[in-house]
C-alpha cells in the first residue's frame, strides 16, 4: 500500500495528513502528487468529483511555495463561492503546520474592500471565483502578474456556467512562464481549448474512464408519465427512510415548487436556486451539511461545486440535456468508498437521453418498479413513529401534564396507540389506479365537510389530463382571482374536469375572472353546480349538454387531493 511519505511530501505536510487521519492516498493523489512535486510540467488531470482532487493539487502547491515572499504566488480558480470556501478551508488544514502561508478566498457576495485589504496584507495563495476576481483586477485591487502557479479546479463546471470569457481574460493577466494545473471531471471542447491556448504541452493523467460514472454509484430509473412526476418522487422518498440526497430540477420555479410540496407532505426539504439571496443560500447549505435538511432541491447552477459528504441519493427530477451534467449530478454521491444511488425519472421522450447516458458512462441503469400503496403506508407509519420517539420534551408544558394524564389514565396503552394511528392515517385510502403511469397509487382524501349555504361549488373543464393535480389547480385558480390560499377548498381533480368550493361572496369574482378565458386554443368552461341553476360566464357558449357531462363525470378517475 502506497503511503503519503512515499509520495515525497515534506514533514509539516505529513504531520498535517496524519493529524487529519488520512492513512493512504486516493488514486488521483497517488498519480498526481509525485508529478507535481518532481516535474515542471503543466498538468491536465481528469477525475470524478469527490476523489480527493483538492489534496492532489493542494499538498504539492503548499510544498512548492516560498514562505518568505508576501506577494501572491498561486491562484486557484473555482466555479462557486461554496467551493471557493471549501478549498480555502481544506488548504488551511493541510497547511496547519505552515503558519507563514496565508490563504485568502475571493468571492462575490462579500465586502470587496475587506477582501482587498487581506490581499494587501499578504496572501501567498488566492482562491477565487472568476467573476469577483475579474472585477478586482479591473479595479486594480489585485495583482496576479507574478504568479508562479495557476490551478483551474472543476474546469468543466466553470465553463458550463459561462465563465469561458472571464477565464480567458483572467489568464491574460498572468505570466506565460507560470505552471498551470487543470483539474476536471470531464473534458468537453471548451476545456480542451483552454488547455491548448494557455498551457505548455501539458501532461495528462486520467483516473478512471472518461465520462464514466464512479463504480460506487448505482444508476436506477423509473418510467413515468410527465404528469405523475411529483407523485413518483414522493413515492420514492417515502419508502427510503435513510435518504439524504439532492434532487435536481431544470428551473428555479420548479425547484421552489417541488421543495414547497415536499415540505407540505412532511419531508425535511429546502430549495437552493439563483433567486435566493446569498444569506439564504448559506443558511440552507449549513443546514444541509448538518443534515437538518434531508432533501436539497437545486438547480444545476446553484449546486455547482457543492461538496457534502454522505449523500446517499441523487434524484434527477428532470434529465439534463448534457451527459456531462448528469455525470456531475451523480458524482455527488458514492464518495469515500460508500455506495450511492443516482435515480432518473424517465418519460417516453427521455428514453434517447437515457441511452446516451448509459453509453457514455459505460453502464446499464437498473429499471425500478414503483412502491405499492401498502409499502408507502408502512414507510409513512414508520417515519411517523420515529418522529414521535425523537420529539424532545418541552418543559414549558409541565403545568398541563397532570390534566392530560387524567384524561387518558383509563385508556390502555394499546388502545391509545390505535387511536393515535387512526387519527393520523385514518383518512388515507389505498386504491388501485387503472394503469396510468403507476400500477398502484396512494390517494389522500379529506372527508368533505358539509356544504354551507354560504358556500358555492364550481365545475371546471380542467383535469389530470391537462397536467393538473389538486395543489396545481388551486394555485391556478388563485392566480386568476388573487384570492387567499384558504379561499379555495375541497378541490377534487378528475381526468377531464374538476370541482372546487369557495365562499359565496367570491362567486362573481371567480365567474368574471374566467369569462371568455382561452388556454392553448381551448375555451375554459366554469359553472356553478350542486342543485343551483347552472350559470356560465358570458360568452362561454352555454356549457355542455347534460348527457355528455353525466357520462364524462361517471368515467372520471379521482386523483390526489386533500
Q: What's the arrangement of secondary structure elements?
A:
Layout: H1 11-19, H2 27-38, E1 43-46, H3 53-64, E2 74-77, H4 81-94, E3 103-106, H5 112-121, E4 125-128, H6 130-138, E5 149-152, H7 155-160, H8 164-171, E6 179-184, H9 189-198, E7 203-206, E8 217-223, H10 229-239, E9 245-249, H11 252-264, E10 269-272, H12 278-289, E11 295-299, E12 313-316, H13 323-330, E13 340-346, H14 351-361, E14 366-367, H15 373-389, H16 398-408, H17 413-425, E15 428-431, E16 441-444, E17 455-460, H18 470-481, E18 489-493, E19 498-503, H19 507-513, E20 518-519, E21 522-523, E22 526-528, H20 546-555
Parallel strand pairs: 1-6, 1-7, 2-4, 2-5, 3-4, 5-6, 8-13, 8-14, 9-11, 9-12, 10-11, 12-13
Antiparallel strand pairs: 15-16, 17-19, 17-22, 18-19, 20-21
Helix pairs in contact: 2-3, 3-4, 6-8
Characterization of this structure:
The structure is a single chain. With 562 residues, the protein is an alpha/beta fold. It is 38% helix and 17% strand. Strand 12 (313-316), helix 13 and strand 13 form a beta-alpha-beta unit. The chain is globular and about 85 Å long. The N and C termini lie far apart (59 Å). The model is unreliable at 429-450 and 531-562 (pLDDT under 50).
CATH topology-level name of the largest domain:
Rossmann fold
Shape annotation: globular
Based on the structure given, which CATH architecture of the largest domain is correct?
Answer: 3-Layer(aba) Sandwich
Total of domains:
4
Number of helices: 20
Extract low-pLDDT stretches.
Answer: 429-450, 531-562
Number of strands: 22
Radius of gyration: 29 Å
